[in-house]
Amino acid sequence: MMKQLFLPLAAALALAGCDASTTADNSTAQAPLADARIGGPFTLIDKDGKTVRWSDFDGRYRIVYFGYTYCPDVCPFDMQKLMQGFALFAKQHPDLADQVQPMFISIDPERDTPEVVGEFTGAFSDRLLGLTGTPEQVDAAAKAFSVYYAKGDVSPGGGYLMDHSRGTYLMGRKGEPIALVPVDAGPEAVAAELARWIH
């Protein structure tokens, strides 16, 4: 079964988001994940085998999701809702959308080659950046974002599932955590949350 929340801390932070709507302004200092220890430097690889670093996105907002391309249900569902919501946001705020980089980071580097990740993300949007890397690179990125993941039992045919925490992070221009994007609530909720914090 997929883990729906990451850590007790993350659960508390998610609940804190319910109160954020009552704040007077939408500055990131008032954000649900303000001051949380989430995010940090990583070095990964894109669909073309090019090295990508977290610092490459300095000055831009980032939407970060960890999953894997062989995921039978949750990851494709989340990516569909996320990118549908991002498309709504981009239609309403095209200039702001250009300052945002959505990214999907694989936690299954054994199977998720750059080419496989590129095909997966391309099915949802050409704006969605797919990233993978060596097991060590992926593990470092996951730890920076407090993401849990583990390989499940291998079937006789060699297949397996990955157990992993589920969440979509909105990060600020300096790489600071802002909020969890509510993909479960649908595209409209995603667009509204992005509009709330991206300025």
Précis, in short:
The chain is of the alpha/beta class.
What does this structure look like?
The chain has 199 residues and is α/β, with parallel strands linked by helices. It has one domain (8-197): Glutaredoxin, CATH 3.40.30. It has helices spanning 8-19, 74-92, 94-97, 114-122, 135-144, 187-197, and strands spanning 43-45, 51-53, 61-67, 100-106, 129-131, 149-151, 162-164, 168-171, 177-180. It has a five-stranded mixed β-sheet with strand order 5-4-3-8-9. Strand 1 and strand 2 form a beta hairpin. Helix 2 (74-92) packs across helix 6. The longest helix is centred in the middle third of the chain and has 19 residues, at 74-92. Mean pLDDT is 89; it is low at 1-25.
Describe the secondary-structure layout:
Layout: H1 8-19, E1 43-45, E2 51-53, E3 61-67, H2 74-92, H3 94-97, E4 100-106, H4 114-122, E5 129-131, H5 135-144, E6 149-151, E7 162-164, E8 168-171, E9 177-180, H6 187-197
Parallel strand pairs: 3-4, 4-5
Antiparallel strand pairs: 1-2, 3-8, 6-7, 8-9
Helix pairs in contact: 2-6
User: What is the β-strand count?
Assistant: 9
Which H/E pattern describes the elements? Answer: HEEEHHEHEHEEEEH
Task: Using the 3D structure, state the CATH architecture.
Answer: 3-Layer(aba) Sandwich
Separation, N- and C-terminal Cα atoms: 37 Å
Mean pLDDT level: 89
